[in-house]
Amino acid sequence: MKNGIGKTISKKKLTVIVIAAAVVLLVAILAFVLKGKSSKNETFVYAAPVSVIMNPGNDTGVLNRFAGVVEAQKTQDIVVNQEKTVKEVYVEVGEKVSVGTVLFTYDTDTDTDNLEKGRLELERLNNDLTNKKAEIEQLKREKGNVGSDAQLDYTIQIQSAEMELKQTEYGIKTKEIELEKLEQSIANADVKATMSGTVKSIRTNDSIQMGSDSNNAFMSIIGDGAYRVKGKVNEQNMSSVIPGQPVIVHSRVDADVIWKGKLTEVDRDNPGNDSNQMYFSSGDSTTQSNSYPFYVELESSTGLMLGQHVYVEMDYGQEEPKEGLWLDESYICREEDGTAYVWKMGSGDRIRKQTLRLGEHDEDLMQYEILDGLTKEDAIAWPDDGITEGMKAVLSENGLTGLVMPGEEETGINNSEEDLIMEDDLMTDEDIMTDDGAAAMNDIAGEEAFENDAADETAEASQLMEHVDTKMEGGEA
């Protein structure tokens, strides 16, 4: 009897322990999930270290960057005369050519036939002219030998002959011009290269053998020599692109690699409609606009490849190191009395105002020297209107700054970014996924994965409790 009771008591203790463990596990999981959901539904702000924001290679500044592509300094596009037929092409795609190289020739058989026929016609017109002059002279002589009654009739005949004479003279001049054009066409049947370079593309039977062109050129030649960079500027940012201004060209692969150059031209006569392009402004708005091509002459093209995609920004000396701590003025706020401050990530991961003492102001880079109140190790946030003291702050090592409202995905868009132009022919979706954006997307994916795992564990705990309850109701306890 005692053994049976002891076994029963042991089973009940075990059941209680199992139930208690399951409940504790369930409560812990639910609390963790609810904590995650509550944090996601809480307004918070990204704060980035000042050292990251100050990094010239970081995209958190206020300087415009434009997408560009490396191209040949000069390109010769040859368009076929629509009134002619190409007889033979003498070069191939990829072939090197020099000035005077015969590229292709026109079929001149038709022009030759028309030239022979035209010469015969011109000879006939000259004969008609000679005969008509003789006829007029004859009429004038006869007019002097007739009476007054016949004078009027001769006058009409002479005037009519003189009109025909003028028509013949006009016909001769027209025919001479026509024959001259035919002679020039035959003499210029061979189309020659006007610069040294490499054949980029040849259009044959309405198809491109290799390469691509946008102006339906029959043949394109890429000139030898240094490269240049072609970019596009949106009409809203046109004022920031000035011919003659120094520029910095950034590699899109290695942030530490740059080239220097000068902006030589903005083509305002050939706008392109960017109806399919997106322009980020404050991270959450899009618009449609026209863009204009601009060109950069490089000091050196060493290390660049034809067709390479790059970033272009105006050179205000941002690559030159400065002593001390300098901060973009867009991060700095002012109290009513003029006191300068920033939104700093403080103790407990809460945002608060940090008073600053300012020094010099760099008007070109729009930066202030920070004399006191901030260090490079401090983390600050972009001053959104919705930020208040005590708000939760999240540290971003990649330079993301800005307010994140409840329900919004943490996409990692930096509110301090100026309009970043995305050209379909220059930038792909993969290209514009920055390290910051990729990190944020990874964070989102990790959070979603955690929530899924937590939900699975909660379900398992619920099933365990249901199983224990069933056992107890069945008297198996």
Shape: elongated
Number of helices: 6
Outline the low-pLDDT stretches: 1-12, 14-18, 26-39, 206-214, 275-286, 409-458, 467-477
* Proportion in β-strands: 25-35%
Q: State the major sheet.
A: 9 strands, mixed
Structural class: alpha+beta
Verbal overview:
The chain is of the alpha+beta class and 477 residues long. 34% of the residues lie in helices and 28% in strands. The protein has 6 helices and 26 strands. The strands form 5 sheets. Strands 1, 18, 19, 20, 21, 22, 23, 24 and 25 form a 9-stranded mixed beta sheet that branches. A 6-stranded antiparallel β-barrel has the order 2-11-16-13-12-17. α3 packs antiparallel against α4. The longest helix is centred in the middle third of the chain and has 40 residues. The radius of gyration is 41 Å and the shape is elongated. The N terminus and C terminus are likely disordered.
